[in-house]
Amino acid sequence: MDRAGFLILVVLLLGAMGAALLLIDPNDYRDDIEAIVERETGRELSIEGDLKLSFYPWLGLELGRTSLADDPAFDSPEPFAEIERVYLAVRVLPLLRRQIELDTLVLEGARVRLIVDENGRGNWEQLIEATADDEREPVERPEDEEPTEVGITLADIGGVRLTDAFFSYEDRQTGDRYAIDPLNFETGRIRFNEPVPVQSSWTVNLPDDMSLAGNLRLEVEFDAAFEQLLARNLNLQLIARGEAIPNREQSVSLRAERINLDLAAGRYELPELRIGAAGIELLAALEARQDDEQLSAQARVDVPEFDARALLARLDIDAPETADPDVLQRVAATMDVIWADEQLDLRTLNIALDDTTISGRALVRSFEGPVAEFALSIDAIDLDRYLGPEREDEAERIDGEPVEEAEFDLPLELLRGLDLTGEFRLGQLRVAGLQMADMAADLRAENGEIRLSPMQANLYDGRFEGELIFDVREDTPRLAMRKALQGIQAGPLTEDLLDDDWVTGRGDVAFSLTMVGNSVGAWLNSLTGEGQFQFDEASVQGINIAYELRRAQARLQRRDAPEREDDVSDFARLTGSFVAEDGVIRNEDLRGESPLMRITGEGGVNLTDMTLDYLLTVNLVDTLTGAEGRELDELRRIPIPIRVRGPLDDFNISVDLQSALMQLHGEQLREAEREARERLQQEQDRLQQRVEEERRELEERLEREQERARERVGEEVEGRVRDLLRR
């Protein structure tokens, strides 16, 4: 259509409007309009207010109170929709320039009520069906006919004003009801490429007497193609109220000075966003990009320092009881967040927790599981400050009166789905009293098995290496530990761990243990495994073996006990191994060496009732000093049994010196018997020798007498022969 034709059309239109203004009263057609709507929709339309038309300088329509009845099937006494006033007008003269200038669009008192019945059908569906049945076939243009371009542009809109609106949604299947009451929305003058002030307020009423009130203010600027959008001075305030809301009321604020949206290029920029809630504020800068169906974004997030305890109080959450009440008061964080290829990358992560700094990065490859990688570095942290204070029931457990304890409420399904790969590096760590430095640990969680391996650290002038495996594939978790301590100073270690340096010296300890259960008690009762230890230049606190021997000797001899000495026994070397089974730790090969004595030992510790039962055997190899020592010289190299029995924190020591002395006296009797037998044998041998000697003397005398007798007989025979010869 050319310009002349358009002008003629406008003049004719103005003439028709003038005639209509003089000749037509729109209220005369009210009944007809109501009848048509009821016929087409099956619902009653009630126009209670006036219908007003204006023609110059504005061509406008104003409609008074009007309502549309609900679907009769829903048996609702209230209308489906109603409105108090609608006003819409276009300026006439700009139409001559092919421009549309609208006055402020006004909707006052709009009410819309949506209902879903017990069968899941909505009260709006019948309207959609009625409208669909009445759709006309589109008019087809001849193929050789080109579309006519009038060239009209939307030049100006006075604004949009929605006041006192009401929208509700009722679900009769669940009994839930939601409502926005009221809703107000208003803009200033709307022109392309010029700032448009926007403000809105609303209150959303939720089930369980909860509500969410909001207030929004900003300026919006956009081009005619709606491809470039710019928002300025965004200020959003939200207030949630209700019994389920901490302290019955919480507020959230969101502020941004500028938001750039380039819809054509798919580029979005938010240079500075401030989010405030519960007394803390989060700062963020965001950039995003949309390429086809892929969205990528990066943000810088800064959480200034806040008091975590105060935050929990504002959220009506009890702060955890900690050994140090001053912790959790200084928390801050900064990080770079990148979203790309459906992965979340947290870079340059820095968290400040009281006196601790945590840095590193994390990559979430998939939120199903999740599947993630991380690397964290901690400068120094004292975990004991964050653990709960020791309770009386814990003391009762040590005293041999175990208390009933709750089972761990572990999220087993979540733990089984974890697919994590990470590493920890800690400069200084304190936990359970133990102090470690330069700790490193690698974590791998997969298929329900969480493994910390290897684990390494320097502690107490020595080295720690090991691994920890937490297996949740079954309903009852299983914990396995394999650890080795080399060259550690046992005194400071036990002092920090147990508040008592009950063993000192440089030592090596290795063990492999497993525990099964859903509570600490179950873990202790199921402890199974083995280990070994060796300590050089060691001292054992709580028992002075030499003093116990002196005291037992004095008691046996009915003398006063010797003066009390320090409860400590020194050893050049102390070695042994142990086997744990079902919470009972057995040791059968304890060996201790010192210049004074040699000891062996066997016994065990029952972790179920925290008691021990141990038998030491002492062999003195050197002389004790002092008068009492001289009296004990007779016990040298004689095994002396010492029984250690009772609760771990209050055990009894008894020395069976009487049996040692009986053994000693029995040995002395046996020695005397041996000596008597030897003397008897010697006397017998002497007598036998004397008898033999006397016998030999008699034989020799007899032989001499016989020889002399023979000589005499010979002489007599010889004499008689001579006599005979003389005769």
TrEMBL record:
Biological process according to GO: regulation of protein targeting to membrane
A Gene Ontology cellular-component term: plasma membrane
Protein name as it appears in the record: AsmA domain-containing protein
Domain AsmA, residue spans: 4-590
Species assigned in the record: Alkalilimnicola ehrlichii
Chain spans, region Disordered: 680-727
Superkingdom field: Bacteria
